[in-house]
Amino acid sequence: MTRIKPYALLLLPILFFSSCLKDKCTQTYTIYRPVYKARQEVYADIKSKPARAITSPGKITLFGSYIFLNEINKGIHVIDNSNPSQPKNLSFIEMPGNVDLAVKGNRLYADLYNDLITLDITNPTQVSVAKITTKVFPHRMYTSGFVADTNLVIVDWNTKDTSVEIGCSGTPMFGWFDRSAMLLSSFASGGTNTATVGINGSMARFALKNEYLYTVSTTDLKVFGLQNPDAPQQLNTVQLGWGIETIFPFKDHLFIGSNTGMFIYSLQNPSAPVKKGAFAHVLACDPVIADDTHAYVTLRSGNNCRAVINQLDVLDIANLQSPSLLKTYQLTNPHGLSKDGNLLFVCDGKDGLKVYDASSPTDLKLIKQFKGFEAYDVIAWNGNALVVTKTALLQFDYSNTNNIQQRSSIAIQK
Amino acid sequence: MRKIFCLLLMAPLFVYAQVNQQKQKAMPLKFETIVQTGLLVGDNAESATLQAIAGMRHKKWYAGVGTGLDFYLQRSVPLFADVRYDFSAKRKTFFLYGDAGVNFAWTKNKEQQNIIDQTPGLFTDAGIGLKIATKKQDAFLISVGYSHKQLEETQKGFSWWSIIGPGVDYASELKYNYSFNRIAIKFGFVF
């Protein structure tokens, strides 16, 4: 017994500290409270205003010598790009709830939460509302847990940091909503370089094709007829499944990127797109672009993409009914991409912008890489690459492929 | 913080150099290495732990620098200073130990968990143990202690925009402070 007693000392810490074994984990998050404004007042306020600093750039459309750049949930910057070496921020169109836009002729189509706004941009610095088509994007009614009121529109958010104790049994994934959680849809348009239609980036969710506007939500494809440009008519809604991300029009087809794969829809009947083919991939975020023979799909990991891969897939789309994987290139964190001729531009997250010689899609050759910024989306057209980064809107001159260089930068203010 | 790390890393070398100088004199110092494994038992999750400590012994006192690996909740690598005191010079003796240092996170798949930053935190461990020497002057250890480690982490908040948007990530950041407490039961070998 006496021999045992000293060894019992080893149990002392357990006796002392058994009540102190609870873990403590705290989470600090930001609560956003909406600031409302009367809907009619918001409509009346959709007009050109003095230029303002870019703080949260979103979708981008290149239209002639103008850049229309979305300021997420705030409106649209109008930038004079007649001299890409010296772009000028001309004006700002106030439009709360806007995340997407597309331009055709002298009309700009944009969303204002669940409404579709048609703007007359004959004079891009003095725009006017041509038409308000209400409640066509019902999925945008829900904003960070707030349901849009019939007569009120969320125009801003008040913020407050709050700390709470949470369970430590696992790493919490998501906190409270944040301001960007409201961004449930957008428009896309791309793959065309006609003079009368704006060119959108590959992350777009609005697509313009002939007399039709196609928009995707996370689950469906909507078709609007633009036979009367001032009065878009909703013609059809096609269910696509879940996790729909981007839409890219090319010739008579729509290439739709989703979390699970790429879908090809035929526009033989433009008002009723029909699924023609699909290519499944692992769960990931994936914009897609295409040309006559190949589709380029970037798959990335990261925030809620629920993937562990970061790669560029090159698909053979000679047979649109059964696209097949030709080659996979490992990348860092690829986002948007664009192709002009044999040049392929890929925004590779923190690795910046990569420019490939894609004359042989199964043997891409990296010919130039620009580092020092996080690149997200790119529009390459006519020797000028417009790149949205985390810190600036950059433009690169690639008219001489042997000497691609940055030509301008508009800083983003944080 | 860097200075502390450097000092911690260089301490054994410094002591070792001192020992070499004094070796031919009285040999009051002895270089010892401790390797130990054990269990970390707490309110939430139990896990194994591994540690290695290198240091110098002077009579009943021992001082060294150690590192290890903790596997629970947030896997981490502590880097710490270790001080021990033996109650006697007998073959079997109780001892007290205390560790203090810095806890570094070593998290798998950070990107998938939306982790964008991790800040090292405090690491402490203190307790009592039994040391049983072998005939070759090595020794076995068994100890029970109380371990506390901290970690700060920043994660991206959920954002639909990151899925559907142009890629620019506007999700707000979520900050986490973790404070973990465990009973540390360890078995080791000194040589």
Mind explaining what this structure looks like?
The complex is a heterodimer of chains A (414) and B (191). By secondary structure, chain A is mainly beta. Chain A has a domain at 24-239. In chain A, 4% of the residues lie in helices and 50% in strands. Chain A is built from 3 helices and 35 strands. Chain A has helices spanning 4-7, 12-17, 39-44, and strands at 24-38, 48-50, 57-63, 66-71, 75-80, 88-94, 101-104, 107-112, 115-120, 128-133, 142-143, 146-147, 152-166, 186-187, 199-200, 206-209, 212-216, 220-225, 233-239, 244-250, 253-258, 261-266, 274-280, 288-290, 294-299, 311-316, 324-330, 337-340, 343-347, 353-357, 365-370, 375-381, 384-389, 392-397, 405-411. A 6-stranded antiparallel β-sheet of chain A has the order 2-6-5-4-3-15, with no helix packed on it. In chain A, strands 14, 16, 17, 18 and 19 form a 5-stranded antiparallel β-sheet that branches. The termini of chain A are far apart. The model of chain A is unreliable at 171-195 (pLDDT under 50). Chain B is mainly beta. Chain B has one domain (2-190): Porin (Beta Barrel). Chain B has helices at 2-22, 160-164, and strands at residues 29-41, 47-58, 61-70, 76-86, 92-105, 115-133, 139-156, 173-190. Chain B has an 8-stranded antiparallel β-barrel with strand order 1-2-3-4-5-6-7-8. Mean pLDDT of chain B is 79; it is low at 5-10, 13-17 and 159-170. Chain B: Residues 1-17 form the signal peptide. Chain B: Keywords: Signal. Chain B: This is Outer membrane protein beta-barrel domain-containing protein.
